[in-house]
Write a structure and sequence with these properties.
Strands 9-8-7-10-6-11-12-16-15 form a nine-stranded mixed beta sheet, with helices on both faces. It is α/β, with parallel strands linked by helices. The chain has three domains: about 130 residues, MurE/MurF, N-terminal domain (Udp-n-acetylmuramoylalanyl-d-glutamate--2,6- Diaminopimelate Ligase, Chain: A, domain 1, 3-Layer(aba) Sandwich); about 280 residues, 3-Layer(aba) Sandwich (UDP-N-acetylmuramoyl-L-alanine:D-glutamate ligase); about 170 residues, Alpha-Beta Complex (Protein-Tyrosine Phosphatase, Chain A), CATH 3.90.190. Helix content is about 30%, strand content about 20%. Helix 2 links the parallel strand 3 and strand 4.
Length: about 600
């Protein structure tokens, strides 16, 4: 596709550094990675959080790239020697001047003698996404697109939707945290939501393979960085919002604003917004009808504008999103199709389109009696945990939005299996229940511990740590939650990355100490004749799992959380194989031997 046609198809405005005719330049690839740039590539120089893409223009040139797109406000000089084309504005900040000085030393032509063409645009990130989509023929338009965003529950909801759609005759494709998959293809997932170049190529492959519905986990990073630019979703699901990624967003309001973009910028005008409304903790405990969505949580402040906010699964974020969406929405009818404009499905509240009359949860699964726009009906699932009822409600809401009836939804969700690393259950021969879960946020940890506490275990034991190079403020919060809801806590490493495991564990430990938890050697805590409560520190995750499982007794429930489905551990920047689930199986076999 020639450059003019590509930008026209993508609806991206641009300026050019010369009067050259762009119709004679063909582009077969759009990339922000200079290593993938070639003679027929368009290289987009993006400003990242750690890397300035403009510093890689020279590398793209040496690989033969002849077309470069940068941001208008932070242009590099467009020609050797620092001169620019008439009418081009250069921002004279120190950072740009420094980059410009570097650029003066770069060649203005490719190794094969072609002159570099510089294009500029106001929003390079959004342009990158739209250009990648246009180059692949906007593949998302050929499938029904379902986007899922929220702090917790995205992956579980994606798995449930995959089963629901397949059960009812669709051909689903999934793009999410665990992997990217469609038909018989399974691709490892480096990011929850891929970068635009990879994402649009994947969507094109899915469309060509006959995928009818794409279920995409849409992270806040992806929304902030424009990875889904050029995509409009038919249905968008909001699962919940609680503390996470504040190392990136700074505060909860900014985090929420990014999540909201899925609905304000990437949802079709007549699409469907499905919002899970949190339930009161007392209603969850008693299996009663849902409440007003403000829940019962724990208090915390982090100095980022969040002081005194309640920290449950949804606090008031669902209601705030609903307040934004309601003026745009038309009440949904029984078929799930509104008369005009946006269709809004509120799931779990006492005034929504899908409400819970009564529910109960056990190791056998979940049963909920529902009411709403589709009348009264019963939803059953083999999934464990009241928080999974919220996931089921959200998925049922998506089902209604897609036009499925309650019989189709009930049957499809009843058949949905376990999700890897999401409260995944392992039962030992001597009556110990072991669960592996991905819970790595304060809210998720609280939810899963409350769920397991309702099993009335002899002792509730949890093994966890926190990831390095991520939100440090959540570490003591998670320590406080673990000490409050578990009998025995074993602090260990997660993915320390570039940080020291001991420093991360010390930060978590402060939370345990704040509620009076006492440290005791693991052997004493788990001794057969003792019923001590407290915590210990075991830096090696493998040793923590082994030593704990060797000392459990009938009736104990063990939660190993933080990594879930992950099969690597990153220490000092080096990733090596490590899978909590494999560790559990290995230790159980060793005990049997």
């Amino acid at each position: 596709m020639n450059v003019t046609a590509l930008f026209k198809a993508a609806k991206v405005d641009y300026s050019v550094d010369s009067g050259r005719n762009l119709d004679d330049l063909t582009v077969t690839a759009v990339t922000a990675d200079s290593r993938r740039a070639g003679e027929d590539s368009l290289f987009v120089a993006l400003m990242g959080t750690k890397v300035d893409g403009r510093e890689y223009i020279a590398d793209a040139r040496t690989r033969g790239c002849r077309v470069v797109l940068t941001g208008r406000r932070n242009n590099l000089p467009l020609r050797a020697g620092g001169t620019t084309a008439p009418g081009t504005t250069i921002t004279t900040t120190a950072a740009v001047d420094t980059a410009a000085a570097v650029d003066q030393k770069r060649p203005a032509i490719t190794p094969d003698g072609h002159e570099i063409l510089y294009l500029t645009t106001d929003n390079p990130r959004a342009a990158f996404g739209r250009l990648c989509a246009a180059l692949r023929g906007f593949p998302a338009r050929e499938m029904i697109m379902i986007g899922i965003t929220g702090t917790n529950g995205k992956t579980t909801s994606a798995y449930l939707l995959e089963e629901l759609i397949r059960f009812n005759g669709g051909e689903p494709g999934v793009i999410g945290t665990i992997n990217y998959r469609y038909r018989d293809q399974v691709v490892p997932a480096p990011h929850t939501t891929p970068e635009p170049e990879s994402l649009q190529q994947l969507l094109r492959e899915m469309a060509n393979a006959g995928v009818t519905h794409v279920i995409m986990e849409v992270s806040s990073h992806a929304l902030d960085q424009g990875r889904v630019a050029g995509i409009l979703f038919d249905v968008a699901l909001f699962t919940n919002l609680s503390r996470e990624h504040l190392d990136y967003h700074g505060n909860m309001q900014s985090y929420f604003t990014c999540k909201q973009r899925l609905f304000s910028h990437h949802l079709k005008p007549q699409g469907a917004a499905v919002v899970v409304v949190g339930r009161k903790q007392e209603d969850i405990d008693n299996g009663n009808r849902t409440g007003n969505g403000h829940g019962h949580g724990y208090e915390s402040g982090n100095g980022n504008g969040n002081e005194g906010e309640r920290r449950n699964g949804n606090e008031n974020w669902s209601q705030r999103l609903i307040a934004v969406l309601q003026p745009l929405a038309t009440p949904a009818d029984e078929s799930g199709r509104g008369k005009a404009a946006l269709r809004l499905f509120r799931c779990g509240g006492d005034r929504g389109e899908l409400q819970v009359l009564t529910s109960r949860s056990s190791l056998a699964g979940i049963e909920a009696h529902l009411t709403g726009v589709a009348g009264q009906w019963t939803l059953r699932s083999t999934m464990v945990g009241n928080f999974n009822l919220d996931n089921l409600l959200g998925v049922a809401g998506v089902g209604l939005a897609l036009g499925l009836n309650v019989e189709q939804i009930s049957a499809g969700l009843a058949n949905a299996g376990a999700v890897p690393g999401r409260l995944e259950r392992f039962t030992s021969h001597h009556g110990v229940e072991v669960f592996v879960d991905y819970a790595h946020t304060p809210d998720a940890l609280a939810q899963v511990l409350r769920t397991l506490r309702r099993l009335a275990p002899r002792r509730l034991i949890t093994i966890f740590g926190c990831g390095g190079d991520r939100d440090r403020g959540k570490r003591p919060l998670m320590g406080k939650i673990a000490a409050s809801l578990a009998d025995i806590v074993i602090l260990t490493s997660d993915n320390p990355r570039s940080e020291q495991s001991s420093a991360i564990i010390a930060a978590i430990e402060r939370g345990l100490l704040s509620v009076g938890s006492q440290r005791c050697r693991l052997e004493c805590l788990l001794g057969a004749a003792n019923m001590f409560k407290g915590y210990d520190l075991v830096v090696s995750r493998r040793q923590a799992i082994r030593d704990t499982l060797l000392r459990t007794r009938p009736g104990d429930v063990v939660l190993i959380c933080g990594k879930g489905h992950e099969n690597t551990q990153t220490v000092g920047g080096v990733s090596s194989f490590f899978d909590d689930r494999q560790e559990v199986i290995r230790e159980q076999l060793a005990i049997l031997a």
